[in-house]
Amino acid sequence: MSLRTVFESQPDRRYIMFGGKGGLGKTTLSATCAFWLASQGKRVLLFSVDPQASLSDIFQQDIFGKGPVPIMRNLWAQEVDADRRIRDYQEEIRKKILDMYGFDRVPEEIDNYIAAASAEPAMEESAIFDAVVDIVVQGDYDYYMYDLVPLGHALYYLSMAKVYDEWINKITRLREEMRQYDQVAATMRREKTMEEDKILGELLYIKERINASSQILTDRRRTAFFFVLVPEEMIILDTRKAAELFSKFDVPISGYVVNRVLPPDLGKGQIPEYLRNRIAMQQKYMRDIEASFGAQILAHVPEMERDITGLGMIERLAKRLFEEVSAR
Amino acid sequence: MADETKPKKGGILGVFKDIVYGMSSHEMTRYAVRSRASMEHLFILITMGDLLGVPILPPYYSLRLLPYVTPQISAWKRRMLRERDITDVLG
């Protein structure tokens, strides 16, 4: 199997994610795959849920907080500005309170709560989570590529979907029970009409959004999750652990991509000892990777002579990855 | 209650119905309403707990619910934070 065959044989898998520790090349690989898919005529949205997003850097243009920005034909990139989203959201809540009760200003206690809520560490993650739901439920693109945050965050993000879902289920039940008591009181007083429970409506809305997103993350038919790793001991150990955790959350792992592989013929000529040692080390860990992940390895990405930024470099890497034989 | 002072339709029959309601269902209605109020407080505690310094869950979605419970917040805080004594148990 190669990355290309994965995409070609499973065209229903439209939600593509690359995961792995920070700095291993997730953004590079997402951008490269997005570039290749777009050049095959698919409409692709590559978006980042990382507060320190790097899509702007790789495409060499400022796209932060600007919605989907066209990069080339069929390819759009988007970086979510979580801070602005939170500010807009707070404003929306304040306005709703003013509108609902005809206040001139939001009561101090309530306003303090709104301000304090945004300072909580969970706020940013939740806001991003919600932004992702907005992005993926639109459904205008053939492919959605998540430029995922490093592993720890990704796991938190995935587990949050479960926690949220259970939490909302519980309070929805409580709310429904409350409604039954209302109903009892209304019937006994022989009142026919009952006010609609707006909170219950909101809860159901929230639940629907969370489910939409977490279902995508764990949907074997529609989602492909790739791990990026490099031939180094700690990375291999971490990847194994993460893969185990991810499968606990039912995330369908489609395969592994080995990045930063030094070209093997480099070792043939007269080379400094330092480089020779690096190559020997890589070869040892390449065998470990082969033993751990075997047939699930989809590509070996060569260490290029310079960093990957700009469409020209991305195109070169896409050619290497999708059109030439793997660099092993 | 305001609606009790309104003139009721139905004459004798209406009065009779009200008497029967008062004798039979009024207590149950009160019970239902009181249970409903306790649950309302529980609900606000679960969703807005961090107002009292009890962060229960991420605040992003609880903010969404905040406008609906705004009028109840003060009463709820009073109830949650008031001191309790023996009469609470007896009452």
Question: How are the SSEs ordered, and which strands pair?
Answer:
The complex is a heterodimer of chains A (328) and B (91).
Chain A: H1 3-9, E1 15-19, H2 26-39, E2 44-48, H3 55-59, E3 69-72, E4 75-79, H4 82-101, H5 108-117, H6 121-138, E5 143-147, H7 151-188, H8 198-217, E6 223-229, H9 233-248, E7 253-261, H10 273-293, E8 297-302, H11 310-323
Parallel strand pairs in A: 1-5, 1-6, 2-4, 2-5, 6-7, 7-8
Antiparallel strand pairs in A: 3-4
Helix pairs in contact in A: 2-11, 4-6, 6-8, 7-8
Chain B: H1 11-24, H2 26-48, H3 59-69, H4 73-81, H5 86-90
User: Which percent range fits the helix content of chain B?
Assistant: 55-70%
Which oligomerization state do the chains in this entry correspond to?
heterodimer
* Relative helix content of chain A: 55-70%
Q: What does the average pLDDT of chain A come to?
A: 86
Major sheet size, sense and barrel closure of chain B: none
Strand order of the largest sheet of chain A: 3-4-2-5-1-6-7-8
Task: Count the beta strands of chain B.
Answer: 0
- CATH-scheme architecture of the largest domain in chain A: 3-Layer(aba) Sandwich
CATH fold label of the largest domain in chain A = Rossmann fold
Distance between the termini of chain A: 14 Å
Which structural category do the helix and sheet elements of chain B fall into?
Answer: mainly alpha
Principal-axis shape of chain B: elongated
Average pLDDT, all residues of chain B: 73
Largest interface: A-B, 46 and 38 residues
The structural domain count of chain A equals 2
CATH class label of the largest domain in chain A: Alpha Beta
CATH superfamily of the largest domain in chain A: P-loop containing nucleotide triphosphate hydrolases
> Please, how many domains of chain B?
1
Which band does the percent of strand residues of chain B land in? under 5%
